[in-house]
């Protein structure tokens, strides 16, 4: 078993994110178990959905931490992570698509941190932006400009309001970003919500 991060170097933010991920995963699984168990057929459907969500939880953990397999290239990990987060966090009757534009990658020593921030930003888009929506789209873009590395997670969900409150997911993302002198912002642009991570050139060198 390959592990991408030594547990000797686990920080408070690491545990905070693991707790947040675990809580969200168990909440989604328990929500499925607590409803719809009215017939043998509904029990079979629920069991299949619970199995699917457990497998997605493992997929997310592999993309983030490489717990059961050697981590692959950044782009592959990013897509696997986003698919897992959307599948786990979304409702069974939702259709949420995700498109990628990977024009740049973070430095090798920051890839894990960027992916962990993606986990929180995409999770927020699904949990809040796509709440009670049948259709939705999320775009994940990376690029490099004069200021440094930029990641954007853009969704066409309900929006974050004029002054969005920093919930646990956004707070974790901000804490992770600060470790590499990066910043996380959230804004509404037209009918899209844009969550942006910026890592300055010096930190990304």
Give an overview of the whole structure:
It is built from 6 helices and 5 strands, in the order H-H-H-E-H-E-E-H-E-E-H. By secondary structure, the chain is α+β, with helices and mostly antiparallel strands. It has a single domain (7-204), classed as 2-Layer Sandwich (Heat Shock Protein 90), CATH 3.30.565.10. The protein has a 5-stranded mixed beta sheet with strand order 1-2-3-5-4.
CATH superfamily: Histidine kinase-like ATPase, C-terminal domain
Q: What spatial order of strands do you see in the largest sheet? A: 1-2-3-5-4
Low-confidence stretches: 1-7
Structural class: alpha+beta
Helix content: 40-55%
Mean pLDDT over all positions: 83
Query: For the record, what CATH class applies?
Result: Alpha Beta
CATH architecture: 2-Layer Sandwich
How many separate structural domains? 1
Radius of gyration: 17 Å
Q: How far is the N terminus from the C terminus?
A: 31 Å
Biggest sheet details: 5 strands, mixed
SSE order: HHHEHEEHEEH
- Total DSSP E strands: 5
**Principal-axis shape:** globular
CATH topology group: Heat Shock Protein 90
Strand content: 15-25%
Count up the helices: 6
Please give a quick description of this structure.
This protein is of the alpha+beta class and 205 residues long. It has six helices and five strands; from the N terminus they run αααβαββαββα.
List keywords for this structure.
6 helices; single chain; disordered N terminus; alpha+beta; 205 residues; globular; Heat Shock Protein 90; five-stranded mixed sheet; 48% helix
